[in-house]
Design a protein that fits this description.
- The structure is a single chain.
- Helices cover 33% and strands 22% of the residues.
- Strands 29, 30, 31, 32, 33, 34, 35 and 36 form an eight-stranded antiparallel sheet that branches.
- It has five domains: 6-121 and 564-640, Rossmann fold (3-Layer(aba) Sandwich); 262-475, Isoleucyl-tRNA Synthetase, domain 2, CATH 3.90.740.10; 644-706, no CATH class; 747-874, Isoleucyl-tRNA Synthetase, Domain 1 (Orthogonal Bundle), CATH 1.10.730.10; 880-942, Roll (Ubiquitin-like (UB roll)), CATH 3.10.20.590.
- The longest helix has 19 residues, at 790-808.
- It is globular.
- Strand 35 (694-697) and strand 36 (704-708) form a beta hairpin.
- It is α+β, with helices and mostly antiparallel strands.
- The structure holds ligand ANZ.
- Ligand ANZ binds next to strand 13 and strand 17.
Length: 943
C-alpha cells in the first residue's frame, strides 16, 4: 500500500465524487458565476483520443480552481450523437443506429469518468435524446416562424410580416407563398450529391474528388427541394458581433473571411436588340433601377465598377436562370453539354486558381451601359451560381480569372487602369498582354480618364444610379445554410406538407404544434438506401408518414437535420436540462449565460461557431435568450501529434543509405547514386542516437536520420489510446502530462517518455508525504507540526503566487514546472511542515485531483479537498531579507557575507570589510581597489 498506486486510488475517488455529488452545480449561482464549457465529442466507435483530454483537462483545472475560489461553476458534458457512422453501421449490420450510439456513449462516459473530470453528470445530454431534440425541433419552428426585418436588423414573428397589397389582392395562395418566401427556414432547390450507382444521396464528406468515397462511383450534382436557413440575413450582425468577443484573432479572421463582406455595384446590361438599347435606357431613366432584374437585362455584381469601360465580354454561371433564353439555337447543344459536365464539379473545383478555364459562347450579346457597345455573353463554370448575381462583366485587363479566360478564347483585353510608372510589366499591361489587378488612374474610359479608382467607382456608380442602370451593393461570401440531409440518423423536421385527395402536395405547409413535439424517428425495418434521390424516412410506414388535422391530410417532411443542428444550442440546455415545458427557463438563462470559457479544436473555427452564433441571435431576437452572443471567451487547444518518428533510406538489402547518396530516379521514386533502388522507412528510436543537433543510426553513425512528428491517424498506427496510458501511468499522470507538454494552444508531439517523467513527479509528491519504504502506511518522519523557516516560507508563497497567476492565465505548463520546483525543494528539507504540505496539495489538486484527495485524507483531513478554499499568498513572505554574496581577493573567493538583496555597493563593501575572515586575511595587505556588483559579489584588489 505505501507505494503510489493510481489504479487503486483513482477509481475510489471517482466513486466518492459521484456518490457525494461533489461537483453538483449550485441551483442558483452566487455573486460570481463561471460557465466552463468543452466542445462536446462525437461518440465515435474508437473511443476517446488523447486529443480530447487536452482541452477537457484544461477546462477541468479552471472549473476546479474557480470552485475553490468560491465561484459558482457550471461544468457540463454531453454527446453530439447523431451522424453518419452509426447510420453506415446500421446499413451494414441492420442494427439500429440508436444501439450502436448508446454503446459508444457508454464507452465515452466510462473514459471521461476514468479521467476524473469534475463534470456535473446530472446534466449530461445527448443530441439524440428525444427530450433534447424535441427542443431542437422547437427551435426549428422558431426559425420557421421568424422573418428578418432589414430596417430594424432583427428577426420578428412571421405574423408581423407586412404583406404588400398586390400580394394580398392575389389571394390566399399568393399570401402563403409570400410568407413562406420570407421565413428564416425556407424551402428551395439546392444541389445534392446524387450517386446513381449507389442509389443514394451522399453527404459532402462521402464524396472524394467528385467520386463516391465507397466504391468510387461518379457523383452528380442534382437539384432537390431542401430546407435552407437564411443565415445571410444575419451576416452583418455576425460580422460586427465579433468585435466584442475575447476570441483568438485567427478565429475571428477566419469567421470574417467566411462571411466575406465586399462592397461594389450591381449593374444591368441590356440583352435585347442593339437598336432598342437607347429606348430601353431612357425608360430605365424614368422607372429607376428595379429591385429584381428584368428579363431584358443581365444583372452583374462587381467590386470594380470603375473598370466598366474595360468589360469586353460577360459570363453567366451554368445554372443561371436566363441561360436558356440567352442561348442561340445553334449553340444550344454545346451549351447543354457544357452545363452537364459542370454539374459534376464542386464549387471548389470550379474556382481553384490553377485549374484550366473553360466555357462556351451562348451566341448572344449584351450592351455595355457606359458606351453602348455590344459584348458577347459566355457561359463558364468559374462563375458560381450562388455568389452575387451568378453573372459577371468580365474585365480581362484587371481580373486574373478573366484574363486567363480571354487569352484562352482570344477575347479582347482593354486596359482601363493605368499601372504606376515603376510597375514591373507596365508595357505588357498597357498592350493588353498582362493583367493588372491593383488601383490607379483611369484610361480608355471616356470622361473618367485621369481620375483615380476610388473617384471613378463613386462617379460611375452615381451615374448608373441616376440612369436606373445600377446601384451600389454589398455582398457576402456567406451562403444560406443548406439545412436538410437525406439521412435517417438525424432530427426529423417538425413540418407537415398538405396533400390533396389524390395524395399530391398542394405546396402548403405547417409546423407541427409545439405540444406535439418531439417528432420521433419512425421504426424502419432496414436502413438500406431505396435507390431514389429521396430521404430514407420516405420508407416509413403510412402511420408515421401521414397525419390528418382538422380534416386536412398532410405528409411529414422526410428530410432530417444535419449534425450541426444539435450542437447549435446544447450549451443552453445544460443550464436547464430537465425542463420539459421550455427549452430553457429565462431566469436560469439570465443567471448563467454567456458561456465564460469555451475550449475546443480549431477545426470548428468556422461552421459550428458561426451556426451556433446565428441560432443564438435568432433566439435573442425572439426573446428566448438575454445575451446577443453565446461564447464570451474562446480558446483552441493545439493539436497533439504522434510520437516523433525517425526515418531513413534503405536499399533492397535493407542496408542503410546516407541521404547524401540519394537522388531522384528517372522513373520516379528514389535511388542511390550508384543505382540501387532505395525506400524511406521508419526506424525504431532505440536504433538512433543524438549527434549534435541531429540524429544518426547507432549501427552506422555516418548515416543521418530524419525525425518528424505526424498527425495521429489509424493508418500510421501512431494513435495513442488514453485507456492504455491510464492503465500504465494513471489518470493524474495523463492529465498532468497533457498540460505539461507545452502551452495549451501549441501543436505538440506526444511522448510516452514524457508521461513517465510526469509520473515520477507524482511519485515524488507521494514520497514527500508518505514513507513508501514501510509495509504499513506511515507518514514521512520529516513531516512536522512546526512552521516553515524563512526560506521554506518564501518557496511556499512564491509557489502559491505563481500557480495562482499561471492558472488564471491558463499557462498550465509553467504552473506545473513551479510545483515541481516546490517538490524538489521540500523533499530535500529535513523538516516539512504539514501546513505547507496541505497548502501545496490544494494547489496541485485541480491538476492531479485523485492523488491530492488521497494525500489530503492520509494527512487526516475530512471530506473532499475540492471543497477547500484556494490559498492566498503573503507578499511580505516573498521578500528575501538577506542574500549570500562572495567576497573575492583579486578574483578569488575568500569568504561569504550576508547582505540585503537591494544593498548598495558601499554597503556591500562595508559589510565585506567587517567580516572577520576578510579582516584576518587582510592583515599585512593593502587594498588597491574595492568593487561591488549589487546582488552578486564584492571584489577587493589587494597587494
Ligand atoms: C468586374 C471586375 C473587374 C471584378 C476587376 C474584379 C476585378 P469579391 O471581391 O470576392 O466579392 N464575381 C462576381 N460574381 C461572381 C460569381 N458569381 N462567380 C465568380 N466571380 C464573381 O469578388 C467580386 C468580384 O468577383 C466581382 O467583381 C466579379 O468580378 C467577380 F478588375 O467584376 B469583378
Amino acid at each position: 500500500m505505501p507505494r503510489y498506486t493510481p489504479a487503486d486510488i483513482e477509481p475510489r475517488w471517482q466513486a466518492y465524487w459521484e456518490e457525494n455529488k461533489t461537483f453538483a452545480t449550485p441551483e442558483t449561482p452566487g455573486s460570481k458565476k463561471r460557465y466552463v464549457l468543452d466542445m462536446f465529442p462525437y461518440p465515435s466507435g474508437d473511443g476517446l483520443h488523447v486529443g480530447h483530454p487536452e482541452g477537457y483537462t484544461a477546462t477541468d483545472i479552471v472549473a476546479r480552481y474557480a470552485r475553490m475560489r468560491g465561484e459558482s461553476v457550471l461544468h457540463p458534458m454531453g454527446f453530439d450523437a447523431f451522424g453518419l457512422p452509426a447510420e453506415e453501421h446500421a446499413i451494414k449490420t441492420g442494427e439500429h443506429p440508436r444501439v450502436q450510439t448508446q454503446r459508444n456513449i457508454d464507452n465515452f462516459t466510462r473514459q471521461l469518468k476514468m479521467l476524473g473530470f469534475s463534470y456535473d453528470w446530472d446534466r449530461v445530454l445527448a443530441t439524440t435524446d428525444e427530450r433534447y431534440f424535441r427542443w431542437t425541433q422547437f427551435i426549428f419552428l422558431v426559425l420557421f416562424d421568424t422573418w428578418f426585418d432589414p430596417q430594424q436588423q432583427r428577426g420578428r414573428p412571421i405574423a408581423e410580416l407586412p404583406i404588400p397589397d398586390q400580394i394580398r389582392a392575389a389571394g390566399e395562395a399568393a399570401v402563403d407563398d409570400y410568407i413562406n418566401s420570407r421565413r428564416l427556414a425556407y424551402l428551395d432547390d439546392a444541389l445534392v450529391n446524387w450517386c446513381p450507382n449507389l442509389g443514394t444521396v451522399l453527404a459532402n464528406e462521402e464524396v472524394v474528388d467528385g467520386k463516391s468515397d465507397v466504391g468510387s462511383h461518379p457523383v452528380k450534382r442534382i437539384p432537390l427541394r431542401q430546407w435552407m436557413l437564411r443565415i445571410t440575413d444575419y451576416a452583418e450582425r455576425l460580422l460586427s458581433g465579433l468585435d466584442d468577443l475575447d476570441w483568438p484573432t485567427g478565429i475571428k479572421k477566419l469567421q470574417s473571411d467566411w462571411i466575406g463582406r465586399s462592397t461594389g455595384a450591381e449593374v444591368d446590361f441590356f440583352v435585347g436588340e442593339a437598336a432598342k438599347f437607347e429606348a430601353w435606357k431612357s425608360a430605365r431613366g424614368k422607372s429607376g433601377f428595379p429591385a429584381k432584374a428584368s428579363d431584358d437585362a443581365l444583372r452583374v455584381y462587381t467590386t470594380r465598377p470603375d473598370t466598366l469601360y474595360g468589360a469586353t465580354y460577360m459570363v453567366v454561371s451554368p445554372e443561371h436562370p436566363m441561360l436558356d433564353q440567352l442561348t442561340a439555337a445553334d449553340q444550344s447543344a454545346e451549351v447543354k453539354a457544357y452545363c452537364e459536365k459542370a454539374s459534376f464539379k464542386s464549387d471548389r473545383e470550379r474556382t481553384e486558381g490553377d485549374r484550366e478555364k473553360s466555357g462556351v459562347f451562348t451566341g448572344s450579346y449584351a450592351i455595355n451601359p457606359v458606351n453602348g457597345k455590344p459584348i458577347p455573353i459566355w457561359v463558364a463554370d468559374y462563375v458560381l451560381a450562388g455568389y452575387g448575381t451568378g453573372a459577371i462583366m468580365a474585365v480581362p485587363a484587371h481580373d486574373e480569372r478573366d484574363f486567363e479566360f480571354a487569352v484562352q478564347y482570344e477575347l479582347p483585353i482593354i486596359p482601363v487602369v493605368q499601372p504606376p510608372a515603376d510597375a514591373e510589366n507596365r508595357d505588357d499591361i498597357l498592350a493588353g498582354k498582362a493583367c493588372f489587378a491593383a488601383v490607379g488612374n483611369a484610361i480608355n474610359s471616356g470622361p473618367m480618364d485621369g481620375k483615380d479608382t476610388a473617384e471613378v467607382k463613386q462617379q460611375i456608380t452615381a451615374q448608373l444610379d441616376a440612369e436606373g442602370l445600377g446601384n451600389s451593393a454589398v455582398n457576402y461570401k456567406l451562403r444560406d445554410w443548406l439545412f436538410s440531409r437525406q439521412r435517417f440518423w438525424g432530427e426529423p423536421f417538425p413540418i407537415l406538407h398538405e396533400i390533396d385527395q389524390a395524395g399530391n402536395a398542394t405546396g402548403r405547409m405547417r409546423g407541427v404544434d409545439p405540444s406535439e413535439l418531439p417528432v420521433r424517428l419512425p421504426e424502419l425495418e432496414d436502413f438500406k438506401p431505396h435507390g431514389r434521390p429521396e430521404p430514407p424516412l420516405a420508407k416509413a410506414g403510412d402511420e408515421w408518414l401521414y397525419v390528418t388535422i382538422d380534416g386536412k391530410r398532410y405528409r411529414r417532411e422526410t428530410n432530417t437535420m444535419p449534425q450541426w443542428a444539435g450542437s447549435c444550442w446544447y450549451y443552453l440546455r445544460y443550464i436547464d436540462p430537465h425542463n420539459d415545458s421550455a427549452l430553457i427557463d429565462p431566469e436560469k438563462e439570465a443567471q448563467w449565460m454567456p458561456v465564460d470559457l469555451y475550449v475546443g479544436g480549431a477545426e470548428h473555427a468556422v461552421l459550428h461557431l458561426l451556426y451556433s452564433r446565428f441560432w443564438h441571435k435568432v433566439l435573442y431576437d425572439r426573446g428566448h435568450v438575454s445575451t446577443p452572443e453565446p461564447f464570451g471567451r474562446l480558446i483552441n487547444q493545439g493539436m497533439i501529434l504522434g510520437e516523433v518518428e525517425f526515418t531513413g533510406y534503405f536499399d533492397e538489402n535493407d542496408q542503410p543509405v546516407s541521404t547524401k547518396d540519394v537522388k531522384k530516379s528517372a522513373g520516379g521514386g528514389r535511388e542511390s547514386k550508384d543505382g540501387r533502388k532505395v525506400t524511406l522507412k521508419s526506424i525504431a528510436d532505440d536504433q538512433v542516437e543524438k549527434q549534435g543537433e541531429g540524429f544518426v543510426l547507432k549501427s552506422d553513425s555516418s548515416i543521418k536520420v530524419e525525425s518528424r512528428a505526424n498527425k495521429m491517424s489509424k493508418s500510421r498506427g501512431n494513435v495513442v489510446n488514453p485507456d492504455v496510458v491510464v492503465d500504465e501511468y494513471g489518470a493524474d499522470a495523463l492529465r498532468l502530462y497533457e498540460m505539461f507538454m507545452g502551452p495549451l494552444e501549441a501543436t505538440k508531439p506526444w511522448s510516452m517518455a514524457g508521461v513517465g517523467g510526469v509520473r515520477s513527479f507524482l511519485d515524488r509528491v507521494w514520497r514527500m508525504i508518505v514513507d513508501d519504504q514501510q509495509d504499513e502506511l506511515v507518514l514521512q518522519s520529516a513531516l512536522s507540526q512546526g512552521d516553515c523557516d524563512d526560506e521554506q516560507n518564501r518557496m511556499l508563497h512564491a509557489t502559491i503566487k505563481k500557480v495562482t497567476e499561471d492558472t488564471d492565465a491558463m499557462s498550465f505548463n509553467t504552473a506545473i514546472a513551479r510545483m515541481m520546483e516546490f517538490t524538489n525543494f521540500f523533499t530535500r528539507s529535513q523538516q516539512r511542515p504539514i501546513e505547507a504540505m496541505k497548502t501545496f496539495l490544494i494547489l496541485l489538486s485541480p491538476y492531479a485531483p485523485h492523488l491530492c484527495e488521497e494525500l489530503w485524507k492520509i494527512l487526516g483531513q475530512d471530506g473532499s479537498i475540492a471543497h477547500q478554499s484556494w490559498p492566498q499568498w503573503d507578499e511580505a513572505a516573498l521578500v528575501q531579507s538577506s542574500i549570500e554574496v562572495p567576497v573575492q581577493f583579486n578574483g578569488k573567493v575568500k569568504s561569504k557575507i550576508q547582505v540585503s538583496p537591494d544593498a548598495k555597493p558601499d554597503e556591500m563593501i562595508q559589510a565585506a570589510l567587517e567580516d572577520a575572515k576578510v579582516q584576518s586575511l587582510l592583515e599585512g595587505k593593502n587594498i588597491v581597489k574595492k568593487i561591488a556588483v549589487p546582488g552578486r559579489l564584492v571584489n577587493l584588489v589587494v597587494k
